[in-house]
Write a structure and sequence with these properties.
By secondary structure, this protein is mainly α. The protein has a domain of about 120 residues. It contains ten helices and two strands; from the N terminus they run ααααββαααααα. It starts with a helix and ends in a 9-residue tail after the last helix.
Length: about 210
């Protein structure tokens, strides 16, 4: 009888100890969650960016945010990028081990310059691959085909503004682009026939003729 009472008392004490441990554990977990939430809340409100949003400085009204006209986000996609993505350019880029090249669907001399030459000129302001290579190489190869002057001269009034827009890019003002830009203008002058220089000079007064 005494053994059973002793055994029952031991079980009762174990149950009380277990329930006490559970309450202690749950209490610790609740305190830990509360501490984490408070730390997250304090860190989010104490950051400089959040504080600036909650309490704007008086100088913010005097210095409104402006858009960078030369920024990547503000630059609208060119007509070349849209047409190339839809397969509208009759050539494709062939990757080589040393250098790339273009493979035309038909000989370039058989292609109409209008509007292909103008579309390729639109791509000269692109900054991403493969647009950069396809537009530059395609523009160059078209101007080198037989009969290019006769096809290019009628397009000059529409072609020069496109080239001028490409030259307005801040990126193209870097020194490394001076040589290819000059080379493109010289090819226009060389293969564009009589009157080409006058048109180029009217749009780009600083251009120096290759005949000088």
């Amino acid at each position: 009888m005494q053994k059973s009472e002793c055994h029952g008392g031991t079980q009762l004490r174990n149950r009380k100890a277990g329930s006490c441990d559970q309450r202690t554990s749950s209490s610790i977990q609740i305190k830990h969650r509360t501490t984490v939430q408070q730390s997250n809340s304090s860190s989010s409100t104490s950051s400089p960016e959040t504080a600036r949003k909650l309490h704007p400085r008086p100088s913010d009204k005097l210095n409104p945010k402006t858009i960078n006209p030369f920024g990547e986000q503000s630059r609208a996609p060119s007509a070349f990028a849209a047409i190339y993505s839809k397969g509208g350019i009759p050539c494709r880029l062939v990757h080589g081990s040393v250098k790339h090249r273009l493979q035309w669907e038909c000989p370039p001399e058989n292609l109409p310059f209008d509007p292909l030459l103008i579309t390729l000129a639109e791509g000269l302001r692109e900054t991403k691959h493969p647009y950069t290579f396809v537009s530059k190489e395609g523009f160059r190869e078209l101007l080198l085909v037989q009969g290019a002057p006769e096809k290019a001269v009628p397009l000059l009034p529409r072609l020069i503004p496109v080239l001028k827009a490409a030259l307005l890019s801040k990126r193209l003002r870097e020194k490394k682009f001076k040589e290819p830009i000059t080379s493109a203008l010289q090819k226009l002058e060389q293969h564009g026939g009589n009157g080409t220089l006058i048109i180029i000079k009217s749009k780009i007064p600083t251009y120096c003729s290759i005949c000088c």
